[in-house]
Specification:
There is one protein chain. By secondary structure, the chain is α/β, with parallel strands linked by helices. The radius of gyration is 16 Å and the shape is globular. It has a single domain, classed as Class I glutamine amidotransferase (GATase) domain (Rossmann fold), CATH 3.40.50. The protein is built from seven helices and ten strands. Strands 2-1-3-4-10-9-8-6 form an eight-stranded mixed β-sheet, sandwiched between helices. A two-stranded antiparallel sheet has the order 5-7. Helix 1 (15-23) packs across helix 7 (213-227), helix 2 packs across helix 3 (95-103) and helix 4 (176-184) packs antiparallel against helix 6 (198-211). 34% of the residues lie in helices and 26% in strands.
């Protein structure tokens, strides 16, 4: 199975999600949208249809509605619409989930209840457990037409399914090392402003990236077998 992984910047990598996909037989083919995280005002041409059996949309430090990223966000939303219409399974994570919402007719807006760190959700299905899941976002999104809500919490929608695709607001891929890399490029500023100690989150994550592994695998196996495998 060839899996196209859209990495919106060099630090938005698939980590544990990618590792499990590889264990399931996927060959990951990364496509980095923004090469320099300090210069997101670029354009992008996304890979043509028909080459991949799975698309994974990773996170991003930007929002889909920011003017400076429209050079690649606009073609990405069109890319998402094409993949879903063709029945190609798409897995959207955080920004990737928001892009799926925006591309399929939903809305993405600034949230009054941003989330940083490990939090719980309210799930409609056993395959997505209540958590904890890692969150790092200041936006919220709405359910697009023809999609089914799967999870939410007080901050808003947390997961939805549409056709053979799945979108999740949280970061199942998260590791302590990935959080530490974000901090090196000021990615923890919002945590500090929210009164959260990034060092404590990194230390907590060293344990939780292990204890939450079964939940990650359960969700991904369900996605691959029941959602992506449908139709």
């Amino acid at each position: 199975m060839r899996a196209l992984v859209i990495e919106h910047d060099p630090l938005s990598t698939p980590e544990r999600v990618g590792e499990h996909l590889e264990r399931r037989g996927a060959v990951l083919e990364p496509f980095v949208v923004v090469e320099d995280i300090n210069d997101p005002e670029v354009s992008a041409i996304f890979p043509e249809n028909g080459k991949h059996e799975l698309v994974v949309l990773m996170g991003s430090p930007w929002s889909v509605y920011e003017d400076r990223v429209q050079g690649w966000v606009v073609p990405e939303l069109e890319f998402i619409r094409r993949q879903v219409s063709l029945g190609v399974p798409v897995l959207g994570i955080c920004f990737g989930a928001q892009a799926m919402s925006a591309g399929l007719g939903g809305q993405v807006t600034r949230s009054e209840r941003p989330e940083y760190g490990w939090v719980s959700i309210e799930s409609e299905i056993d395959e997505i457990v209540p958590g904890p899941w890692f969150q790092y976002h200041h936006d919220e999104f709405t359910l697009p037409p023809d999609a089914t809500e799967l999870a939410r919490n007080p901050s808003g929608l947390q997961a939805f399914r549409v056709g053979r695709s799945l979108a999740v607001q949280f970061h199942p891929e998260m590791t302590a090392g990935l959080i530490a890399s974000w901090r090196q490029v000021d990615g923890a500023v919002e945590m500090v402003e929210a009164g959260i100690d990034p060092d404590l989150v990194i230390e907590e994550s060293r344990l939780l990236e292990r204890t939450t592994q079964p939940a990650l695998e359960r969700m991904l196996d369900w996605f691959l077998d029941e959602i992506a495998g449908a139709g």
